[in-house]
Amino acid sequence: MHRIRYIMVGGFLGAGKTTTLGRLAAHYQGQGLNVGIVTNDQATDLVDTNTLRGQGFDVGEVAGACFCCNFDELMETMKQLSADERPDIILAEPVGSCTDLVATVIQPIKRLFDAEFTIAPYSVILKPSHGRRILRNEKRAGFSPKAAYILTKQLEEADAILINRIDELEQKQVDELVALVGEHHPDVPILRVSARSGDGFDALIELLEQEGDFGRRVLDIDYDIYAEGEAELGWLNSSVRIASPETFSLDELLLEVVRELREKLAEQDAETAHLKVIGLWEGFFGVANLISSESEPELSLPSNCDVNEFDLIVNARVACDPVLLEQSVRSVIAACCARRGATAEYRQTQSFRPGRPVPTHRFDPDT
Ligand SMILES: Nc1nc2c(ncn2[C@@H]2O[C@H](COP(=O)(O)OP(=O)(O)OP(=O)(O)O)[C@@H](O)[C@H]2O)c(=O)[nH]1
Ligand SMILES: [Mg+2]
Question: Do 313 and 237 touch, CB atoms closer than 8 A?
């Protein structure tokens, strides 16, 4: 029985993890390898799971708690992925507000499941806009000092740091970021990538093939600051069936929801970490995102579909009261539906502040 290659890619909310995993999965499948993906969230109804399944990948999900706090379910989910055919590779995406994953996920896999898995270098993606401000210690750098603490800890435990979105940056800006990250993390390889265009992925794939004792950078971390940083975020997952007597463009509606939510949240001075919506209908899907309050909403994966009925999933991670977040989501969806004479039937909504992380295991390789 071969050992499965465990490739985990971390990074803050909206950094580009799902886009990166989709690209890696397509690459490995193209090489004839059997690939499984595991997604993760604090609640059910994940845009990411549906996005990756929509692309034809075999995806298991750990929903309801992060990998570190629900380690047994991560292992069970990976076992399920192996039920039909044992994967060669499992790509895992942890929650974007999670850190300390080396001690609580990689080390436990190494210690308890060494016969079954080999560990690839743990890569962490840096979202340029956010990362630059935090590493430069600028004012209002990233929600709050406590949330910025999470991002810096994520980078600290990485075997490699990926500077993403280079398709949007000038060479000079990329060089500046590489220098800035290098000042803080002088011993860590830094890769320049675009998950969107695939630039830099040859180097990433080469890096991920390296054999060695990866996942060793166990953090010295203050769980009080970490927990308070996470709890500053309002978290919302909602799934809604939208139906109208008239046909309308699915993509326009997805973008409208994100655009109007952005406006509503700006009125409340609530900073967005990542707002993503997916529309699903009969095998078609479209995705729209907003990755910060300053950026423009975008249709990252168009469906090019006209529909009169579809399932909408909203995942919002915004620094505000979750009650206000839910009210904002409901009023925007109501307004978008009203314009089309459509109805919205809520299947499920969960809105909350993430609770304190309590890892199942926490191992230090030196103890
Ligand atoms: N221009 C550009 N956009 C990108 C790139 N990578 C990701 N994006 C976009 O950034 C947004 C967020 O990407 P995701 O892959 O969903 O980010 P994530 O890290 O998985 O987000 P969470 O799971 O919410 O933490 C999407 O709109 C992507 O299309 C990139 O290299 N260039
Ligand atoms: Mg994701």
Answer: yes
Percent of the chain, pLDDT > 70? 98
Query: Based on C-alpha coordinates, what's the Rg of the chain?
Result: 20
- 3's CB contacts (< 8 A; 6+ apart) are 115, 116, 117, 118
50 CB less than 6 Å from ligand 1? Answer: no
Domain 233-352: which CATH class? Answer: alpha beta
Residue 254, token pair as written in the block: 């997805």
Cα 330 to Cα 52: distance, rounded to the nearest angstrom: 26
User: What gap in Å lies between CA 319 and CA 140, rounded to an integer?
Assistant: 12
Tell me the CATH number for domain 4-230: 3.40.50.300
Same fold, 4-230 and 233-352: no
Cβ of 289 less than 6 Å from ligand 1: yes
pLDDT tens digits, one per residue of 172-225 = 999 999 999 999 999 999 999 999 999 999 999 999 999 999 999 999 999 999
**Residue 300 Cβ < 6 Å to ligand 1:** yes
Out of 300, 301, 314, mutate this one to test ligand 1's pocket (max ligand atoms within 8 Å of CB): namely 300
Instruction: Of 335, 325, 110, give the one whose Cα is nearest residue 218.
Output: 110
Task: State which ligand 1 atom lies nearest to the alpha carbon of 14.
Answer: 21
Per-residue pLDDT tens digits for 17-56 = 999 999 999 999 999 999 999 999 999 999 999 999 999 9
Domains of the chain by residue range? 4-230, 233-352
Distance of CA 58 to the CA centre of its chain: 17
On whether the pTM is more than 0.90, the answer is yes
Task: Please indicate whether residue 192, judged by its CB atom, sits closer than 6 Å to ligand 1.
Answer: no
